[in-house]
Fold this protein.
Amino acid sequence: MSHSPPAPHDPVKQVLAAHRGTLAGVGLFSALLNMLMLISPVFMMQVYDRVLTSRSLPTLVALLVVAVVLLGLMGVLDHLRAVVLGRVGLAVDKALRESVFAASLGHAVQGSGKGDGQQPMRDLDTLRGFLGGPGLAVLFDLPWIPVYLLVCFAFHPQLGALALVGALVLTGLMLLSFAISRRGSRNATEALGCRNGWLEGARRNAETLQALGMAGHIRARWKAAHLEALLAQIKTAEAGAAISAFTKVFRILLQLLLLALGAWLVIGAMATPGVMLAASVLAGRALAPLEQAIAQWRGFVQYREARARLALLDVGRPDTPRTVLPLPCGTLTLEQVCVAPPASSMPTLQGITLTLQAGDAMAVVGPSAAGKSTLTRALIGVWPVVRGEIRLDGAEIGQWSREDRGRFTGYLPQSVDLFDGTIRENIARFSPDSDDDSIIAAAREAGTHEMILRLPQGYDTVIGEMGLALSAGQKQRIGLARALHGAPFLVLLDEPNSNLDAEGEAALGRAIRAVRARGGIVIVTAHRPAALAEVNHALFIRDGRQAAFGPRDAVMRRILAQPDAARESSVTPLRTGQTA
């Protein structure tokens, strides 16, 4: 029996459904506003057909007072509608902002390498701007066009017919604007994403570009992407401007034609002068929502595209309730684990089977591109396990939420990027609940405490964006303290000593021993012997497969017994006396 795929999740629909009462209020305000829009044509008709013929000043004053009061009420309703729509936009932002942030992180974690990782946040801005601005208000005004046209027909069938022809022409222009805006907006968005991706890549690697003389070549690539994006925007803007200009001219022409037709009817005693003027004003009001829709159509297209992109990212989907498991403290087991990059079904690592107990430390060795970092990414949960299982204390690792996994996982990546803030905040992972004792304890365990105290403001030293105020070795040691904060059970260190001096390597060795002593598990990927000296197990990966696993010395002897494997592994042999 086949099952249809689940319906795509629409987060905006969910939020708007929760605020249907508010939207009903907007609809009521719009109804009152559009009825009050009849004030001007009715006032003009009464002045021409009643006041001028009767020459009654009291009638004129009474009409003027009523018109002023109703116009004041219309102004208040228009303001209230704008305020309420602004609240709707804020409600969408509030409901989606956190999951949009998570989607932006997911874009970076999946490492697509294309486009702009900030696009989900820009999509949220687009949603909020459209729903909280005049774009949504126009949609509430469009249904009133037939009402105005019926009033024109009530004035005179020929006036109504001319207004109807004008409405049909503007509707055709609106659909044409939609087609042009949709195609142009899609092309411009893709081009802007490519341009921003080149700029962000250049910014992250500014030092490398300057050192290798690559800045000019990358600038040329960025310039080409920029020009492509600019051309797409200009084409769309020019087409929209042409339609907008024609729409404005056509609306003015239509009002002149209505006046001319009305004058002809007055001359033939088929209508009054008041009807002539009122029909012209009323037709202008009937066509105003269409003209505004054409002006807002590009925004509407961008809104639809942003809504569709966020739906594909599953933004705003409610979390499935989980049973909160106790934090692991015993074993880590991998059973025939196969890992593939995100959005790919081709495994780059497969057949990993091992078990580690509390207090164990394992070195992951192998040639470059063998899959060592892939294993680390799978263990921290950012790359999917396509086959097999990763279990902690018998529970599959996905049974813990990401937040709970962060409580028992410490991670030090190859490239350590710190955030703009103090050293204290970075070690504490920016958690407001961390106390000074836990932060200092993590720094001591990482052997970083004395180094931090030598800085100008110690733990309160502001390190700047990406830790630019620190050397590579200092950032790596602070990153190690961050990984050890909270005494995590599972500590993953990816090339932890790549930027360390002798003092830093000694501190790293003490940190690994400390984690083992308190019953944690350490997995370290390294080529230099200082870290390997502190492990008691080793995993040799070759060509994306497990080649050997077991006690460290036995695995190292097996590697060294195979000259090609020893050469590829790039691991310096341990000196005599270096034991776990």
Q: What stands out?
A: The longest helix spans residues 57-110.
